[in-house]
Amino acid sequence: MTDDGNTRPRATCRVCGDGLEQFLDLGEQPISQAFVEPGADAEEFFFPLVVGVCTGCAMVQLLHDVPRDRMFHHDYPFYSSSSQAMQEYFAGVAREFLDTDLTGDRPFLVEIGCNDGVLLRTIKDAGVRHLGFEPSGGVADVARARGIRVRGDFFEERTAKEVCAAEGTADVIYSANTLCHIPYLDSVFRGVDALLAPDGVFVFEDPYLGDVVAQTSFDQIYDEHFYLWSAESVQATARRFGFELVDVRRLPVHGGEVRFTLARAGRRTPTPAVAALVAEERQRRLSSIDTLRGFAANVARVRDDLVRTLTDLRERGRRVVGYGATAKSATVLNLCGIGPDLVEFICDTTPDKHGKLTPGQHIPIRPAEAFADPYPDYALLFAWNHAAEIMAKERAFTASGGRWLRYVPDVHVV
């Protein structure tokens, strides 16, 4: 249930106020990163994970809010730097900003949701002014230990105005895998309006609705991912707050994302990529209720196939363990009712998760070393967005005869 105890779904869009059409119900779900201590007596928080689309601005969004302090707090257990590939990726993003929008006199970059500073450390090392907003205290402390300037707050109108008053306007406001977490976009955009320099850019990248639908990657939907962006919905949202979508770039990270670049209306000429992506979405009828209900039907098919496959493996005496206790895995496990009877444990590289249980289904989480002690017959790959990096690291598993079980875009064995 929501923070006010009301389980009724929202009927109107959080952005424009028009009506919402429900198309997907993923059932009662726990907080995706609320890993459970064995034997803990505390009652877990569950909420209805229901998704709809706005009939006005085409924004796909959750119909129930989860209180932000339940998701983002001192013990938040996700560290962006845990992946070498993502370290390299964000260093590249930072260098691109340094070569383009951060070349003026005393440039200033502000990041919304800087996590452990994976992007900002390159900005810091270049001697450029920067500030990260990060309300999750543990990961913020890691960033500070690296010499990065972090404000332990949520980014919103009030906090953005305070930064502007103290430090002046920002040439770049950037966010990666964070803006989709924030239901209160009105306050965020008013904050961007207050803090962004007249010719500055607001750049954010998040999971892309088009890829989620095409790949049936329904596990991209969980408590933290309140919005699933399309170019059409971003364009409508930007206009509503006095901004303009001036560039889009498809990204191969995290199973398919788009980097959206916004500027104040009339300040920059939109690139041809914007019109091209909007046209592609309209040709696909990406935001139509029929398309999205078709996606929901595919989700049900994958759910049934995965449960059937795991049940068959259990009946044949095969050992299955999970790889990656990700936020995404919470959606899969709880939608499918997958517990320790089907998946023995999940191995993960994050020490803060070791010895705990997955939210909802209570599968034990063990260190990565447990994967080879001994190897299972099958590994269910929850961290599928890092498949290339993981499979390269775990070549000995396949050499020993082990097989990877994947469920995006459908259930198959590798």
From TrEMBL:
Methyltransferase putative zinc binding domain residues: 13-72
Superkingdom of origin: Bacteria
Q: Which residues form the signal peptide?
A: none
Indicate the segments forming the C-methyltransferase domain, all copies: 252-409
Q: What InterPro entries does UniProt report for this protein, alphabetically?
A: Methyltransf_Zn-bd_dom_put, Methyltransf_Zn-bd_dom_put_sf, MeTrfase_14, SAM-dependent_MTases_sf
Q: What name does the UniProt record give this protein?
A: NDP-hexose 3-C-methyltransferase
Species assigned in the record = Actinoplanes siamensis
The organism's lineage is: Bacteria, Bacillati, Actinomycetota, Actinomycetes, Micromonosporales
